[in-house]
Design brief:
Blueprint (H helix, E strand, L loop, with lengths): L6 E5 L4 H12 L3 E6 L2 H12 L6 E5 L5 H14 L5 E4 L15 H26 L6 E5 L11 H21 L5 E6 L6 H9 L1 H4 L1 H11 L8 H12 L10 E3 L12 H5 L19
Length: about 280
């Protein structure tokens, strides 16, 4: 097993993507801690996953956007575990859906609180435990595609910020031998899909609303969460040693070939988001 005896924490652990990642980590030998807002959902997830393993699964209900709750979580883990080898920040929400003109300012902040601030809090307060590992791995989550996504400014703003935060955390944590990389999972049918439908066609936009209905009906062109889980195992394992500060797509990138090209990747800006300058397109102005 690739991750035998590793200790892993997954936020959003009872969600669609978080649960599948948790199962994949268990199958590779991890001791697991699942975090989510709902005690009942966490209990159900633990029962589901426990049926296929003898490894211990801890659960801890917490809102990752609450600084005090995350501090308490990490204090609890520090009392139970000697270190943390893997941190997966899979907790996330769409936030306010609608045009910028329609959005309520307070609600618009919800995605930033969960997706960005929750990622920040998780890394900040997990750092003492991560430093006790010989080579800890942190996996954050991007999203929102590659271009503009009208009616989802809260979500894409938070996920774009997570990418820059991931780069910065990777640079800061390098001295501790901690790798930090982001996954872009692709369009996965999840609880977020229901949020989009609940927002209604006027806020979601007809195209996205119809796509969500197709997803729930099993007709949509969605991505299996197992793709993100396989990539998460790779990023959590020794196979990805040397890779840090990058954004890897579970759908578009041939990440299985990354170990052959670590040197080139480390010396370039591939798998990162950069401004395109005129000279990059052959212009001399």
């Amino acid at each position: 097993m690739k991750l035998n005896n590793k200790i892993a924490l997954v936020t959003g652990g009872s969600g669609t993507i978080g649960k599948v990642i948790a199962r994949a980590l268990l199958e590779e030998g991890c001791q697991l801690i699942l975090v989510g807002r709902s005690q009942a959902s966490l209990e159900a997830t633990r029962q589901e996953l426990s049926s296929a393993t003898d490894l211990p699964i801890e659960i801890y209900p917490a809102d990752v956007g609450d600084a005090g709750a995350v501090q308490n979580l990490m204090c609890y883990l520090g009392e139970k575990f000697p270190r943390l080898d893997i941190l997966v920040t899979a907790a996330g929400v769409y936030g306010e859906i609608g045009t910028i003109e329609q959005c309520d300012p307070a609600s618009w902040m919800s995605a930033l609180r969960s997706n960005l601030f929750g990622t920040f809090l998780s890394l900040k307060y997990a750092l003492p435990l991560l430093r006790k590992s010989s080579a800890a791995k942190v996996i954050t989550f991007a999203g929102g595609g590659e271009g503009a996504l009208p009616n989802f400014s809260s979500y894409v703003s938070s996920k774009g910020a997570v990418l820059r935060f991931t780069e910065t955390a990777a640079a800061e944590f390098k001295k501790y031998n901690i790798s930090v990389n982001a996954i872009s999972p692709g369009l996965v049918a999840s609880g977020l899909t229901q949020q989009l439908i609940d927002a209604g066609v006027e806020k979601s936009g007809k195209q996205k609303y119809d796509e969500a209905l197709d997803q729930l009906a099993g007709k949509g062109n969605t991505v299996s969460p197992e793709k993100a889980a396989a990539l998460a195992v790779f990023l959590a394992s020794e196979e990805s040693d040397g890779l840090t500060g990058k954004n890897i797509s579970a759908v578009w990138d041939n990440w299985q070939e990354i170990p052959k090209h670590i040197k080139e990747i480390k010396e370039s800006d591939v798998y990162s988001w950069r401004r395109i300058k005129p000279k990059d397109r052959g212009y001399d102005w």
